[in-house]
Amino acid sequence: MAATIHCNGLANKGLKETVIWTVDLAYLLQKLSISFSYITVTLGANPNFSLETFYEKQLSDDIVRVDMLFQRSQEAGIDIECRSIKGDEIAILILSGKYTVIALVDQYILSLGQRMLTCQISIVGPPVIRVSHYIVICGYDALTDEFEIRDPRSRQH
């Protein structure tokens, strides 16, 4: 099911936050009746993010809200798998033609000007994420072992 969501309409869908956490996206997709899988290495807000400039002003408020969303996820019908996902697993999903992946990555990797990510780069970013950023992984080239991505911040599509 394809859905176009305009940013100014997110509040109408229940998403009013300025910092969007992955669990916020899960609740939004659930509210829009879009089938999805949610895989994460951290159940709840990672308190280590308080060291990051991007999060420092809002994290104390977000920790309570985000942790509550995780705690209530099952009753909201959201299944969360706590594990990492490797590039080869993502490649299989993409190559099936049935899936598109929204991934949280380290903005630093994208700032290198790469439009293709190789499997050797962790899709979820290194253990300490400099600045989290969502991308869409929409293709995979098995010959070059690269993912095709769409970066919402980029003017190139």
UniProtKB/TrEMBL annotation:
It comes from the Eukaryota. This is Uncharacterized protein. It comes from Smallanthus sonchifolius.
